[in-house]
Design a protein that fits this description.
Layout: H1 3-29, H2 39-42, H3 46-57, H4 60-79, H5 83-103, H6 108-129, H7 132-152
Helix pairs in contact: 4-5, 5-6, 6-7
Length: about 170
């Protein structure tokens, strides 16, 4: 077999792979159809739907997942001087916790006493004042109250620190 004969199967393989990748890439780039209203939920009997929603939303841990995101964004908003964004995410942080209390009302007492009556409103005050030094001080105090609440809720192994990695590419204009 000549050198040319050996190269043809390789060229065909490369050309075939390129076509497969092109097809796969275009399929990936297509926008999927919008989900049908109640699609997955409608498949369940009505008496099982509420339980299924509960499983999807889970307990307070999912609320805290959002709180974590808002906490980080509020921090970087303040550090970068994007005060409107810091306030926005700070207020959303409270909203996420309140939604969590609906699902797990037993979590409310410690959070209200330790967090909402303590350092949290002070952080929002520092944001409204647009005072970076005050914001850093009060944010650290809030972090301490987060950890105190975790201890009171018997999850002291969830220890909150000062954020070090920004989650979004947002910039202050």
């Amino acid at each position: 077999m000549t050198d040319m004969g050996k190269r043809r199967p390789r060229r065909r393989l490369i050309a075939g792979a390129a076509i497969v990748l092109a097809i796969a890439g275009s399929a990936y780039a297509q926008t999927p159809a919008a989900p049908k209203a109640g699609g997955w939920l409608k498949k369940l009997p009505p008496d099982q739907q509420t339980e299924a929603i509960d499983r999807q939303l889970r307990g307070f841990d999912m609320a805290m997942f959002e709180v974590n995101y808002r906490y980080i964004e509020m921090y970087f908003g303040g550090i970068e001087g994007n005060w409107d964004y810091a306030l926005y995410t700070g207020e959303k942080l409270a909203w996420a916790m309140m939604n969590g209390f609906e699902r797990r009302p037993k979590r409310r007492a410690n959070a209200e006493e330790i967090f909402f009556k303590g350092a949290y409103p002070q952080v929002l005050d520092a944001i409204r004042k647009k005072d970076i030094a005050l914001f850093k001080k009060r944010f650290d105090e809030m972090r301490t109250t987060c950890n105190a609440c975790h201890t009171a809720e018997k999850v002291p192994f969830i220890h909150v620190g000062i954020p070090s990695i920004k989650q979004t590419p947002l910039v202050n204009n």
